[in-house]
Amino acid sequence: MPASGEHHPAFEEYCECIFELQEDDVDVIQARIAERLKVSRPAVSEMIHRLESETLITIEGGHIGLTTEGVVLAQRVVRRHRLAERFLTDMLGLSWADAHHEAGKWEHVMSDAVEEAMDRVLGSPTTCPHGNPIPGSEYLAPASTPLGDLSVGTRFTVNRIPEELEFTPGLLDFLEESSIQPGRSGVITASSPDGTVTVEIDGRHIGVGAFASARILVMA
After folding, report:
1. How far is residue 86's CA from residue 82's CA, in Å, rounded to a whole number?
2. Three-state secondary structure of 11-68
């Protein structure tokens, strides 16, 4: 059972999901939550009612938002998840995909003391390995552009891989293996009408599909 002042892991999971959908400018409706969490629409509907009764969310015209209490809960969980991802990749050498999976467990059991120690050991990082801001770090995101919006010949530096892409099966492995990572630079070498682009990074030519290229954020 959750300790006093804490919430059930399911509440944390839903508030985290809503927070991340808002962060990625995705319209927060029950269908999007069901897709992200891979649960049934009826299950989402039931949980939404419970979250509303706990004053963690608001619902207006089918659109779901977090209350002040919901934001506090979501930011705590997201902070722990992203710190855990940093620790697992930077200190233990796990892959992006494995770290994302493991951090999904750690975020619900991490104590305040462990969170503080992890932040200290890591040197108070401002983003997760994918460039998403760690709540509480006062990170100021630079102006960014979707990779797919750039024209051929444009040089860029990868800034952020949004959470939406982290939940796409196999994509984190592909991006990591292709060096499409925050801080890495490249150039657009080709683009297609369907939104697919080809980039050159470290002398390698890599095709990036329309779904990913429309979401990967870069600085040009």
Report:
1. 6
2. HHHHHHHHHHHHHCCCCCCHHHHHHHHCCCHHHHHHHHHHHHHCCCEEEECCEEEECH
Choose the final residue of a domain: 140, 170, 186: 140
Predicted TM-score of the model (pTM): 0.91
Q: Give the structural domain span for 1.
A: 1-140
Q: For residue 192, which amino acid is it?
A: S
**Tally of domains within the chain:** 2
Any idea what the CATH number is for the domain that residue 205 is in?
2.30.30.90
Residue with tokens 């991490």: 110
C-alpha torsion sign, points 89, 91, 93, 99: negative
pLDDT in tens, 48-88: 999 999 999 999 998 999 999 999 999 999 999 999 999 99
Only one residue has tokens 């051929």, namely 152
- Dist CA 198 CA 88 (whole Å): 30
How is residue 184 written in tokens? 């890495």
Q: What is the pLDDT of residues 32-48, one digit of tens each?
A: 999 999 999 999 999 99
